[in-house]
User: Fold these one by one.
Assistant:
Number 1:
Amino acid sequence: MSLATTSKTPLKSRDYKSKVPVVWCPGCGHHGVLKAIYDALAAAEVDPSKLACISGIGCSSRTPYFINSYKMHTLHGRAGAVATGTQLARPDLTVMVMGGDGDGFSIGGGHMPHMARKNVDMTYVLFDNGIYGLTKGQYSPTSRREMKSYTTPYGGPDDPLNPLLYMLTYGATYVAQGFAGKPGICAELIKGGLEHKGFSYVHIFSQCPSFNTLDTNDFYRSRIEMVPPDHDVTDLGSAMALARMGHYGSAPMGLLYKEERATLDERMQMIIDGTGGHAGYDKNMIINELRP
Ligand SMILES: Cc1ncc(C[n+]2csc(CCOP(=O)(O)OP(=O)(O)O)c2C)c(N)n1
Ligand SMILES: [Mg+2]
């Protein structure tokens, strides 16, 4: 994305903290993800007055409140659509989406492929706790099949979705995975996403000690494995093979894939330029010009 940097003294992580108290439960992984976001914003020198943080609904979707930035707490599952519009209207801003596995892959699942295929120039940080935390513990698309929850008292029937494979399949141009217990690594991955021009997807495992007793901090720690140092991040096939290692097998941590491709706002600009600058303000003129 076009990083909106400040010419003044570089800001520190603490400068990105808002005055709103963080209300998550003690031990929630989201605290680690928030720390990683602060550190990434400072490292990428993002100007808070040029930062728009967009979210849906969920514990994780409260994140924008805790960040010193412009923000929109939108409808459940609709953050991606609102963020796409924000980025198109204001390509000078750094746009981020923050939300959960339920928000992104249940109710918001219809928006996910479009952000990826359109290569919207923004960074999506998905906090995956394998549960609906805010509504107190329902099965989500990333829950393990055997998980007992209020909506699956005997365990569920479904295998979990593979978010990394999903994003790679639909054309995301930056795909990475981290774990809330390793905020330093997460900060690096988010910083890379902020600096990437195009749609960056950063998936972060984040334990929910209140409602997901299966996916504990220790469980995540035991299954994450660093992406091998010789992995070629430009090789989609290798990235997909790593992603396929299994959402609940050993999970790769690090950058899986990176590609340079024209972004949605660049392609829109090409269309506007191709119509002699008419597009965007005189629909009838364009229709007449395109008429055979
Ligand atoms: C249209 C609509 N449907 C359902 C809800 C109820 N609801 C609020 S948050 C949520 C799920 C949150 O889970 P997730 O996105 O994983 O975030 P977490 O709380 O786990 O961080 C649901 C179902 C809602 N607010 N709006
Ligand atoms: Mg969740």
Number 2:
Amino acid sequence: MILLTGATGKTGGEAAKALLARGLKPRVLARNADKAAALAAGGAEIIIGDVTDAGIVRKALAGVEKLFLLLPNGEQQLAQEQQVVDLAREAGVRHIVKMSSMESLPDATAPIPQMHWASEQHIRASGLDWTMIRPNFFMQNFLGSARTIKEQKLFSLPMGDGKTAMADTRDIGAVAAEVLAGSGHAGKSYDITGPEVLDFHQAAERFSEVLGTQINYVPADPEVYLSILKRVLPNEWHANAVSTLFGEIALGAVLPHATDTVRQLLGREPIALTQFIRDHIAAFR
Ligand SMILES: NC(=O)c1ccc[n+]([C@@H]2O[C@H](COP(=O)([O-])OP(=O)(O)OC[C@H]3O[C@@H](n4cnc5c(N)ncnc54)[C@H](OP(=O)(O)O)[C@@H]3O)[C@@H](O)[C@H]2O)c1
């Protein structure tokens, strides 16, 4: 049995769909039955509950061999992931597949990659088999700029001239599903990117090309952007953590490179930004 957390979200949802498409019937721990309805209709077993509830997590882990652990960023993410890992070991889970990030390194200085690295280390120390899913910046983050792209023909982010090797969450979920359904992935860390390293001016060129109209990238002032984040994100810790990470991208603190993980594991090319834009054209035009 495979258990997924985060399967009503972007990447976990893609991983669950890919498992169902393979004819597998994973179990999903979800907070909201409505959001999990499509997965239930597809054959997934749904356990309703919060990952912070140890009793529910124990129930969800019964008979599970492989666990996909994905939680959203927050001040409590490390503690929550450590608790799930400890409960998984107690429950006899054999293999944990953790959603981490490509910036998660021993010398990471931003809070989110630092947290991912500490969580990875907790899993490595658990004695269980593990696989780390380590994507770069999500293409889906552009959906947060869809309104300004549509209405003002621009997007504004505080990345300066920084570069990423952005990846589509459909590829990330498909890699996670391959790891969960397949074998030979224990002890592997998979850095996942799209096919190209782009700065955000180049990303704007891709939008212009696909949408057939000039789209501009307007580098945002980091302080102004932080004040916007504080209005839209659930708490100050999260806003500061995202702002610090974006600041590091702007500074080129972690130099991105394109990896061949998607090609190696899925036997096809990773989704390009132009394809992502075409697939979400109604949101952007
Ligand atoms: N954004 C990026 O560019 C990027 C790049 C690399 C790595 N990452 C990593 O990706 C992860 C987030 O992935 P995502 O964006 O695919 O996630 P997401 O779309 O934000 O979805 C989060 C999922 O977690 C569930 N969840 C949240 N709190 C929960 C709780 N207390 N108990 C049970 N379930 C809970 C949510 O359920 P509900 O539907 O009920 O809310 C949802 O299914 C983060 O760890 C982040 O560091 C992100």
